[in-house]
From TrEMBL:
Record organism: Streptomyces marokkonensis
Residue ranges annotated for the Metallo-beta-lactamase domain, each copy included: 33-224
Record's protein name: MBL fold metallo-hydrolase
Segments of this protein annotated with the region Disordered: 241-265
InterPro entries: Metallo-B-lactamas (IPR001279), RibonucZ/Hydroxyglut_hydro (IPR036866)
Pfam families xref list: Lactamase_B_2 (PF12706)
Length: 265
């Protein structure tokens, strides 16, 4: 099995799309497998520039805020009622309750919309592990004030991508990212919240610190808040992290290569 892994940024805006930049979404490809990682507003159109919906091997959703999952609604219609030949429902990994949440939006009459006809729903939990084609996925519950998860995607050859989803700095994320090839970490906050206010995101400095604690080989900051300049966010992350740091610019593809190392946490 090849150790090649790459991800394409479909969008990295927060909390709503910007001109030319959808919300959170990534196409992860490796080991003959294609995974849609988060389906934020506007990412379906960007995804279709690369693959058809029926070419997906799976979808993984970090949490149920609209800027990470709303394009599942239009994907549902595309999978069932458009130009897609669906041999079987697409595996959909997401937080508990994701199927009923989708059905609540999609149902327009007395009969519940058949979400399961489009998606083979798997509810993730802390330390959840799954194989999607040639990719191994490990999910961890993270600190976002609601059910939310980060994920580590690995090839058999040792390439590893850890995606934070949305979270405040937490031990679960740094454990998940331990010695990973790339940490794709959100940096939404321009500044640390005031004392007494619950933190649910990273600042750029905290993204750098999480990468340093995890021993990540490379940091890519994403989910940049509207009051932050992306290049400033990269610079600020670099004050806490000595490795290479970059911005998840929409449309960019990042290669992820690595050697077999530590086992998944």
């Amino acid at each position: 099995m090849t150790d090649d892994l790459r991800f394409t940024v479909l969008g990295s805006a927060s909390p709503y799309p910007r001109a030319g930049n959808p919300c959170s979404g990534y196409l992860v490809e490796g080991a003959g497998t294609r995974l849609w990682l988060d389906a934020g507003s506007g990412t379906l159109g960007a995804l279709r520039a690369h693959i058809r919906l029926d070419e997906l091997d799976g979808i993984w959703i970090s949490h149920l805020h609209a800027d990470h999952c709303s394009d599942l609604l239009t994907a549902y219609y595309g999978l069932l009622y458009a130009d897609v030949e669906l041999a079987a429902p697409v595996p959909l990994f997401g937080p508990p309750g994701i199927a009923d949440r989708l059905a609540g939006f999609l149902t327009n009459g007395p009969r519940r919309s058949p979400v399961e006809d489009a998606f083979q729903v798997v509810e993730v939990r802390d330390h959840h592990r799954a194989l999607v084609g040639g990719l191994a996925l490990t999910s961890r519950a993270v600190a976002h004030g609601m059910p939310a998860f980060g994920v580590r995607v690995e090839t058999e050859g040792g390439a590893s991508l850890t995606y934070s989803g949305d979270t405040a700095p937490c031990e679960a994320l740094t454990a998940l990212a331990d010695d990973c090839t790339v940490l794709l970490c959100e940096a939404d906050y321009a500044r640390t919240p005031q004392a007494g206010t619950e933190a649910v995101h990273h600042t750029p400095e905290q993204a750098g610190a999480s990468a340093a604690v995890a021993g990540a080989q490379r940091l890519v900051v994403t989910h940049i808040g509207p009051s932050l300049d992306p290049e400033e966010a990269v610079t600020r992350a670099g004050t806490r992290y000595d490795g290479p740091a970059e911005y998840a610019a929409p449309g960019r593809t990042f290669g992820v290569t690595g050697q077999a190392g530590k086992p998944r946490p």
